[in-house]
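Researcher: Going back to the complex we discussed earlier. I've cleaned up the inputs and rechecked each line, so this should be the final set. Can you rerun the prediction on the complete assembly and write out the structure?
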Amino acid sequence: MTDRPQLSVIVITHNREDQVVECVLLLSRLEAGATDPELIVVLDSCSDRSLERLSSLRTEIGSRLVLESIQANSPAVARNRGVDLAHGSILVFLDDDVRPSRELLDAHLRSQQTSDVVIGYLSPGLALKNDWWQLGARIWWEDRFTAMRQPGYVLAYHDLFSANFSVKSSLFRAAGGFDKDCPRLEDYELGIRLLKAGASFSYNPKASVVHMETGSSRRWLDRASLEALGELHIGRKHPDIRKSVFQDRLHHQDCLVAMWKSRFRAAAFRRNALLDMSVKIAGSFLPFLESIKAWQTWRNIMGGAFEYNYWMTIARHFETESQFLSWVDGL
Amino acid sequence: MTGQNTRLEGPIAVRMADVDNGLIQHFDCSGYKLALVFFRQKGSIIGREIFSVINGCLPTDQVLSAAREMEAEPTAGDIWRPELRPAPRMGSTAVTVAVCTRNRASLLRTCLESLIAIDWNPLEIIVIDNCPADDSTKNVVGQFRGVGYAMHKQPGLNRARNAAISLARGEIIAFTDDDARVDRNWLKGSIPNFADPMVALVTGITLPAELETEAQIDFEMGTSFIRGFQRRQFTIKNANPLKVAEMGAGANMAIRVSLLGEIGSFDERLDGGTPTRSGGDHDFFSRALASGYRIVYDPSAIAWHYHKRTRDEVATTMRGYGVGFFAWWTKALIERKEFSVILMAPSVLLNHHMKRVIESLFARNGTLRFRYCWAELRGALRGPLAYFHSRLITGKKCQST
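Model: Rerun complete. Updated structure for the full complex:
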């Protein structure tokens, strides 16, 4: 036996004491490799009792539980800090709101023998059983992983989810870690750099965790802006794949949807204050529409408001829509 | 070829042409003036066409040219296109096949004959004999080795379905009706869809088994069970749980048993054998969607349905559909707080039922006869009362959701 652990598990957390304590407890019971995995928890800007409760676990788990508090308000910075403290040759990144399966670490370790990056399965759990947004999100997640299971599927940068993946430590460090300037989608951005560095990706459904979906329609609309900033950042940093980053945003197979998407885009670039207000008001009606089960209206407003918020953020960085489109085309 | 917008006179031969090799087999249609031909390519129904029969045969050149025009195109963006789906592994999925029946022994025999010939090895085949008047069903089932029999004394199609579920040992339970027969590749068409973990339910295409009478032709041309020739997927992201008629029918459906805890079982106050007469399958489909799961309609899961032969029977069936549909919507409004029913119900009454009644009065081509439309409209108006009546006599405790 060697002292140096094979696996370093890095969990970052922000004010979710119950979830992170449960996650760490479950992780501490898992075995993988010749030595017990190192558990590193980075508490980012926590104001709850997370540190206190995690510290009390040290008596049970021992010195392999490493706790670090930072004030960064940045998942990228928090994960990179976790890597700074890690000793393992393989890094496993997990979110604090996951429930690891018994095979999780073992499956990551086994797949790391043949791949540089191993993507694990995030089995979506619902915090609210009948919440429409969460039901839709579950379908989205399952579809992504179902696609990855298909023979011949080629894993891409947007299949890398920071909530559950592993990577060789040397490769991660050589790639420069997570980009702290990326406002969102920092995992996708890392995926691009790893692929460019020639890393091999694989998906192992046995490396699974239950990922509790806690989002809501309101939060999702708020996140539209961050999605836009994340994609803009990726587009600027990686002009060679800019077109593919915005491909799905600009095009749709369904002509009707495509038409509406382009209308929302055009409207957002016109920057009409009245329209901004209308979209905000319409968005605030979503919970009411859900309560009266107005499926169609809810779906239309949800899709339209997200689209508008996304493009409004993009519009702040370009003079006109055509300027943005030229930029995407690399002109 | 004969246009489909004319009122057709029977009998009409029903045939299926496999067009994989570019050749059309010879079909004997002696005794018929017309033939309804369904085209199958790579195991999936891709279209239909009506042809005039010449000297007891189909005009092969016309059939061939129609087949060429019906090249199946995969749905755009469909990651589960048939060619990408995992090949069905025989016996790898434990499937229970269930048939719920009531006093229709001769039809059941045809159904069971088709089931024991399917190209799949189901874990079990169960017949639920619902409130039988005699032993005829039991005797028929006894003639088929390996087919299980269970009697359920209380009448109700959904009760029988729930009884089948409680007995089933399979991961998937596939239902067909006693007045239907299934294609040899029925389960090969539906079961691979369950490789997608979000699929709760798969429905197939239900074709007419025969069009021997005017009533059967009327029913097929006006209220067919066919829901298109493209594989389609429905989730709450693209479908309204109150509009599930386009997703298939209970005569040809398979359900993932493990999800029933979340979706709930069939509501025993709805469907045949209760005052609501139908709607039990639609209620179930609706709840499957609202629970966040996917429903797949796959035209490669083929069943053939024997429509009612007389006009009286068809009128009764149509009335039952009207009652069942509005009984289910009443339930959705009262119990699931689906308030959009309040807006949708008048619209359906006016734009669907009233429109059909008026069109049928003027006997426009391709319209259903007045008698059937009127029966359906009367049923629709009766639906809410039927729901409350059923609730009263079945008891609130029976509810399954």
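Model: Worth noting: Chain A touches chain B through 22 residues (CB under 8 Å).
Researcher: Good, that matches what I expected from the previous run.
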